[in-house]
Amino acid sequence: MFALLRDLRHLRRSLALPPPDRGRSLAVRHVDAGSCNGCEHELTLTASPFCDLARFGLGIVASPRHADVLLVSGAVTRRMREPLLTAYAAMPEPRRVAALGDCALGREVLGMPDDLAGPVEDLLPVDLRIPGCPPPPDAIAEALLGLVDGRQGPTLIR
Ligand code: SF4
Which of 17, 45, 100, 110 lies at 20 to 30 Å from 76 by C-alpha? Predict the structure, then answer.
């Protein structure tokens, strides 16, 4: 396997091909901090062939240790407060936080019962806000791709 990779690298050099572009990738760790699952349904669609974010270098990862972005959906319940902070603490620098949906943005879609710890912004520094109830898959895709490219799309509000 390593010999094959080495031969490919030599072949690329001998043909004077440009090096492979590895700069456009983003590993996303999703945490449902207390949503109704509506946002998760839309997020699932962004990973489907409908948007196929993998072709742009975007992937959902299972561990926060491998993640560039913590994507949080739902208003944070008191029970999810510590797991959310633990996931954030486990992420390597530079790490970013994205709030997915109106609940995560603190727009009180589900009201503010006592067992809610509050919007994501009360607990973590939010870099990307994706509004909507739920946000459509193309809006989620556009916002995340904007984060990859370092540009501010219409759904990116600082
Ligand atoms: S923003 Fe809407 S769809 Fe998303 S978790 Fe809240 S109520 Fe559900």
Answer: 45
